[in-house]
Amino acid sequence: QVQLVESGGGLVQAGGSLRLSCVASGRIVNIYSMGWYRQAPGKQRELVATISIKGTTNHADSVKGRFTISRDNAKNTVYLQMNSLKPEDTALYYCNLVMGAWARSTYWGRGTQVTVSS
Asked: What SS3 class is residue 69?
């Protein structure tokens, strides 16, 4: 069984910063990628950033230059440093883990709320 636990969300003023963390535990093997997605009320879940096992990153255009994804492979932990936050960044942020060398499995955390006030 795999568990993903996010932390670091909260309420921040526009222009502020937050750092999200996600720790993966359980049977963790053949990690393909880890990442962050978000879902605002009334909207679909969208990709924020992903990072592969080799360290290749992908950031959504809306967060490029403001958010940075990183990971600690030894700790099975992924981070999301969020700077210059905007009210439109307000959402529930979910951690994502993809494992498997051939058939891939996807896991999700329960989410951590980020609220940016104007």
From this structure: strand
